[in-house]
Amino acid sequence: MTKKNFAAAQAVELHIGNYRFDAIRIVETKEYRMSQNHILETIGINNNWLTRLQFSLPRVNKTLMEQGLNHVTVPAEYTVKNTVTRAVTWSLKDVRIIWRYFDKQGNHQAAKLVDALAEDSLTSRFEQVWGEQRTVEQCRIDDCRILSTPCPWTKMFETEFEENLARISKLHKKHIKNGLYYWEFIYSWMTPEEKAKLDIVNPVLINGRRKYKIHQMLSHETKERLSPHVTSVLILMKSANSVAELRRLMQRQYGVDQPNLFDGWDIR
Question: How far are the Cα atoms of 8, 187, 224, 226 from residue 102, in angstroms, in the given order?
Answer without folding.
Answer: 30, 31, 23, 25
